[in-house]
Design a protein that fits this description.
By secondary structure, this protein is of the alpha+beta class. The protein has 7 domains: about 1-475, Peptidase S8/S53 domain (Rossmann fold, 3-Layer(aba) Sandwich); about 490-565, Sandwich (Immunoglobulin-like), CATH 2.60.40.10; about 660-740, Immunoglobulin-like (Sandwich); about 750-800, no CATH class; about 810-855, no CATH class; about 870-920, no CATH class; about 935-1040, no CATH class. β53 (about 820-825) and β54 (about 825-830) form a beta hairpin. It is flat and about 135 Å long.
């Protein structure tokens, strides 16, 4: 049971993540066997329990009996000042301490108790318990930054210049009516640079020292030691600082300024309320480890911190600075922060010092300004191997590297950390409140965040603090100029734009209470209310508008929309045009009032041939002339008293519409006469036809006056074109038509033809005739004289003349000389030697003899090369080559030759002279590619081929575990020759994939990240991240140690580093 308890405690430490810089050896120390408790976890063996409001004494006793059965006893009942009880969820509420004492109880456990988290889970099931959690530590650091050299005062306080504090002081230096509460380790109450600005504070530290002293190592030596000068018990009104952290933070926020000594605070004249919730404690060395891990640390218990927040909110603090935190989202702490925020207190917290994008609390709460740290070069601050935390949960940043401020005993030192950055923001908030006493906490936080300087650092919220811009920030306050919304009518279109003034950027509109009348909707981007109401009556609703500032403004206003019955009106917006001689009919429509309706022509005259039916509201007839008339039509309902609606309309009557009626053209044949007249109706009798776009078939034309397409087509094909016809009165009609010209009158393509009385022979090709200039050209294509078809001269004239025929590509020819050529794409390519001719695989009887005139008509091309691409060649020697383009590649051995699929019969022997014409390329090798897994027959080592900088390398798998972890199967391995294996340069070995879980013999458990291993702090740390133990791979120790370990360490807020 004890060992199980130890693992859980250690994992919880990794979740809480106390904010101080620890050497990696410290983390390992706490993982060793025999440690009774992790000294940076929680108040030893303490559980903080919150009862539900209204809990009865019987229910409380039931809970306590349950705990006593498990060896858990009640230590104390925590109350707030003025007898106010801590109640989660509804803080605070006043209770009579004699009747309702102890809604927050602290319990302690014996060493043989059951697992404390099992107990907490059981407590959550009890109806009297609202919440239970370990009494977490929040840790702070006390030791200043030893890496920073002191310099002149202005240089040492570089942060004030960086945030432009001197320019802000030109407007205000603060006010004694503004109090900044510093919840920390207290303050030096007699410091020369603080004393004048201090108001009454309080000490909330009251720990159970016996619990700490009960924690021992395996040999019985104590984990903790107490300092005789530190105050650990008895809550009182003396918040003196014995650690120094709170004093340093106080000086940055509001040190006395302009007193010719020490340092300047951001808010000179603001008051400081020191609230002590932290204390110093000695952690002793673990005798089981070979190195000294002891040290002095500052701790805070969550119950003390919560009571300090309530005290600050109830005693006039306008700003609370919290330069501490952890990674545990404590409900007790969140309730206290929500209480202070609702009372109008601005809360500022440090983001943490581990260089992580991990949400730290309280900085990550939405109602807290989380502050990251930057250095003097406006970079994210770094120190001791880590640095400032960052992420989208951070609100802004402020100077936090080498910050000079007050420390105990009237001294001044340079410290670093987000603890030092937070009070810059708190002090600036004091300046803003002094300049704008009536501002809300939302307005103050908005001015801080929205005025920040944008710097080239991600994960720091809106940017780095600018005090000058913040105190001079002008609120672009949103306001709604619309006082009330107009009434609507049932089923009628409703469109109304609510007028908004002010705000920044785009706005989000939404209804938070009530509803719009049915049928209406609110545009979430513009604030337009639109639609058609479908029900009568009034609806009350609240609209909320949010702008797009980093810290947005939110505005709400209540409106009422009343939907009335629809007013009688004519619905038709316009009346359609008509044409003379064609039937016209339009139905008038009305809405509202009481049916049936009566329709009256109020004024004007309908065009000749049209009439209005008074009962039906139908205008109909056949107009007899072109005209444009304006009329006013009235509609009356049947209710008493009678309602009416009037609307003015224009009716236009045009001549008959001009339309091309020809829809389809008959096909034509090449060489045969074609004639077709296009037809159009409407318009006037005088028309003009033109080809608007496209092309008519070659040989056809369009008559401009009669619209006749005529002529003798000369080309075969499908032709699409657009015809336009226009009348004298300006009407225009267009139509797209398609005409196909076929080859029904011609012989098929590929037919050989000749006419009587002429020796010329032609080939029909694409319905053209192509002439053979010689018998050699004719025969080179493989044609026979008996294939020629004789046609008439008239038929021959139908065919358009095409290009002359040429000798077929690939034909081998020679003239009267000795040169032999190959015809390629209408060029002749010369064979320079007989070797080249024969190497290309030609026989001597393949040569065609042609007329010299015919041969000279072909331009000289490149010579036929002897490359024989893809051939395997050799000379007189034994070397064998493969030809690629203009190079020859040597086969280094028979294994490669045969492995690539060649046989000895594939080798062609040529002269050494011809072989020497090829440049020597890279040697041939068996073809394997990046991604292949290979080995040789005489070596068990397995390699992965991988492309590195354009060259294929081999990377060895050091073990079967690494091989399988990278997703390969044993059947994927290919055996290759030693020669090929040696041709691949060796690269770094393969390791486990990123995200792999690995372990060795007694060496802890790790996760692989970017080629390094990162240790899990404990088993609970492993479980909390969702990993499964059955996915952990065991590696031999030599392989495990071969993976470098990341240097990332756990750190705290503040300014402490281990001695490097």
């Amino acid at each position: 049971m004890f060992k199980k308890m130890l693992i859980r405690l250690f994992v919880l430490f990794s979740l809480v993540m106390v904010f101080i810089y620890l050497d990696q050896r410290v983390a390992r120390l706490f993982a060793e066997e025999g440690i009774g408790v992790d000294p940076f976890l929680q108040a030893p063996n303490e559980i903080l329990l919150i009862y539900r409001e209204g809990v009865s004494p019987q229910d409380k006793q039931s809970v306590q009996d349950l705990l006593v059965q498990q060896g858990i006893s009640l230590v104390s009942e925590e109350t707030l000042p003025d007898n106010r009880q801590v109640v989660l969820g509804k803080m605070p509420q006043i209770y009579d301490p004699t009747e309702r004492r102890g809604l927050m109880d602290v319990f302690t456990a014996t060493d043989d108790q059951p697992d404390e988290f099992d107990i907490i889970n059981e407590l959550h099931k009890h109806p009297a318990v609202k919440h239970a959690e370990p009494n977490y530590f929040t840790v702070i650091a006390r030791v200043p930054n030893e890496y920073t050299n002191l310099a002149a005062l202005r240089q040492a306080q570089w942060g004030l210049d960086k945030i432009q504090a001197p320019e802000a002081w030109e407007k205000t230096t603060g006010s004694n009516k503004i109090t900044i509460a510093i919840i920390d380790t207290g303050a030096d109450l007699n410091h020369e640079d603080l004393k004048a600005n201090l108001v009454q504070g309080r000490d909330f530290v009251d720990i159970n020292m016996a619990h700490y002293l009960s924690q021992v190592y395996a040999d019985g030596s104590p984990v903790y030691s107490f300092f005789p000068w530190e105050d650990y018990v008895d809550e009182d009104d003396n918040p003196s600082d014995q650690n120094g952290h709170g004093t340093h933070v106080s000086g940055t926020a509001a040190a006395v300024t302009n007193n010719s000594r020490g340092v300047s605070g951001v808010c000179w004249n603001c008051k400081i309320m020191p609230l002590r919730a932290g204390f110093s404690i000695q952690v002793n060395n673990n005798p089981a480890t070979p190195v000294n891990e002891s040290g002095t640390y500052g701790l805070m218990e969550n119950d003390d911190v919560a009571r300090a927040i309530y005290y600050a909110a109830d005693n006039g603090a306008k700003v609370i600075n919290m330069s501490w935190g952890n990674y545990s989202n404590s409900l007790i702490l969140k309730e206290a922060i929500d209480y202070a925020y609702k009372k109008g207190v601005l809360l500022v917290a440090a983001a943490g010092n581990e260089g992580l994008n991990m949400m730290a609390y309280p900085a990550a709460y939405s109602n807290v300004i989380g502050v990251a740290a930057t250095d003097s070069s406006d970079r994210l601050a770094s120190w001791g191997g880590a640095g400032s935390n960052y992420g989208n949960w951070v609100s802004m940043a402020a100077p936090g590297s080498s910050i000079k401020s007050t420390v105990r005993a009237n001294a001044y030192e340079n410290w670093s950390g987000t603890s030092m950055a937070a009070p810059f923001v708190s002090g600036t908030a004091g300046l803003i409140l002094a300049a704008n006493p009536g501002w809300t906490v939302e307005q103050v936080s908005g001015s801080l965040i929205n005025s920040a300087d944008s710097i080239n650092v991600s994960g720091i919220g809106s940017g780095r603090l600018n005090a000058r811009a913040a105190v001079n920030y002008e609120l672009n306050t949103m306001s709604i100029a619309t006082d009330k919304l107009p009434d609507g009518e049932l089923t009628a279109d409703y469109n109304f734009q609510i007028i908004l003034r002010g705000g920044v950027g785009s706005k989000k509109w939404e209804i938070t209470t009530g509803t719009l009348p049915k049928g209406l909707k609110l545009d979430s981007k513009t604030g337009l209310i639109s639609g058609k109401p479908t029900e009568l009556g009034s609806k009350t609703f609240t609209i909320q508008i949010t702008d797009s500032q980093f810290n947005p403004q939110v505005l709400t206003k209540q409106f009422i929309i009343k939907i009335n019955p629809l007013t009688l009106s004519l619905v038709n917006t316009v009346l359609p045009a008509g044409q003379t001689g064609e039937a016209y009919s339009v139905q008038l429509q009305a809405q509202g009032g009481t049916k049936p309706y009566v329709w009256v022509l109020e004024s004007g005259k309908l065009p000749e041939g049209l009439s209005l039916d008074a009962q039906k509201g139908l205008i109909s007839g056949t107009p007899s002339q072109s005209v444009s008339q304006t009329v006013r039509i009235k509609v009356l309902d049947s209710f008493t008293p009678q309602s009416s609606g009037i609307k003015e309309y224009k009716i236009e009557i045009y001549p008959p519409e001009l339309v091309i009626r020809t829809d389809k053209l008959p096909a034509g044949s090449i060489g045969l006469n074609y004639s077709q007249t296009l037809f159009a109706s409407g318009g006037t009798d005088s028309k003009r036809w033109i080809l608007k776009s496209g092309n008519l078939p070659n040989g056809l034309s369009l008559g401009n006056k009669d619209g006749k397409l005529s002529g003798i087509p000369k080309l075969v094909g499908v032709f699409t074109f657009e015809i336009e016809v226009k009348t004298n009165d300006g009407q225009i009609a267009t139509k797209s038509l398609t005409l196909e010209i076929n080859a029904d009158s011609l012989h098929p393509n590929g037919t050989l033809i000749m006419a009587p009385g002429s020796p010329s022979v032609y080939l029909v090709d694409n319905y053209h005739k192509r002439w053979f200039p010689s018998a050699e050209v004719f025969l080179s294509h493989g044609f026979r004289w008996g294939d020629i078809v004789r046609i008439t001269d008239k038929e021959m004239k139908i065919y358009p003349q095409g290009d002359d025929m040429r000798i077929r590509t690939g034909t081998i020819v020679k003239g009267s000389g000795s040169n032999v050529y190959k015809i390629v794409n209408d060029q002749k390519k010369h064979f320079p030697t007989a070797d080249v001719y024969l190497l290309r695989g030609y026989d001597w009887d393949m040569i065609w003899r042609v007329d010299d005139r015919e041969l000279s008509s072909y331009p000289e091309g490149l010579k036929v090369g002897a490359e024989a691409v893809g051939r395997v060649l050799k000379g007189k020697g034994s070397e064998v080559y493969y030809v690629e383009e203009d190079s020859k590649r040597h086969f280094p051995n028979a294994e490669v030759f045969l492995g690539l699929g060649y046989t000895w019969r594939d080798i062609k022997t040529i002269s050494d002279t011809e072989l020497s014409k090829f440049q020597t390329g890279k040697a041939m090798h068996l073809i394997h590619y990046p991604g292949d897994v290979v080995k040789t027959a005489n070596n068990p080592s397995v390699f992965l081929l991988e492309n590195l900088d354009g060259v294929t390398h081999r990377r060895v798998f050091q073990s079967a575990e690494v091989y399988l972890n990278n997703g390969f199967r044993w059947q994927d391995i290919v055996t290759i020759s030693n020669a090929e294996m040696n041709s691949y340069p060796q690269a770094h070995p393969m390791i486990m994939r990123d995200g792999s879980l690995i372990t060795g013999s007694n060496n802890g458990t790790y996760v692989v990240e970017h080629g390094q291993k990162r240790a899990f702090m404990s088993a609970e740390d492993f479980d909390s991240r969702g990993y499964s133990w059955d996915t952990v791979t065991y590696l031999p120790d030599h392989e495990l140690f071969g993976i470098p370990e990341t240097s990332q360490v756990q750190t705290f807020f503040g300014g402490q580093w281990p001695d490097e």
